[in-house]
Amino acid sequence: MFSHDATLEFVYDDESRARVVAESVAREIGEIDDDRSQTTIDRNGDTIVLEIDARDVTALRAALNTWFSLLDVAERTATLGDRYAG
Predict the structure, then answer these.
(1) β-pair partners for 11
(2) Burial of residue 55 (number of CB atoms within 10 Å: 0-12, 13-18, 19+)
(3) Per-residue CA distances from 47 to 11, 18, 24, 83 (Å)
(4) Over the chain, what is the mean pLDDT?
(5) I want to staple 48 with a disulfide (CB 3.0 to 4.6 A). Which of 10, 23, 40, 70 is the partner?
(6) Which family is this protein grouped under (predicted)?
(7) Distance between CA 69 and CA 55 in Å, rounded?
(8) How far apart are CA 5 and CA 20, in angstroms?
(9) Rounded to 5 degrees, what angle do the CA atoms 69, 73, 79 make?
(10) What 3-state class would DSSP assign to 3?
(11) pLDDT at residue 85, rounded to an integer
């Protein structure tokens, strides 16, 4: 039973950037999840929504740190891609 949760919304300048970032991190869904935390990801237009459910506050904090890091890397990589594609 999961007793702690967090819902995170990330709004991007456009739908294309949100799609690239969401597809990049969505590959980790199921790979990172364990018996202490589960995450889902959805995208609606320019907004990514991550929902994290955890058994305890320590697992929630660990999952939050992981997903923030993954999103940060995906965002920076997309920015570099844009810079070198143009």
Answers:
(1) 47
(2) middle
(3) 4, 6, 14, 22
(4) 93
(5) 10
(6) Belongs to the CTAG/PCC1 family.
(7) 21
(8) 25
(9) 145
(10) coil
(11) 77
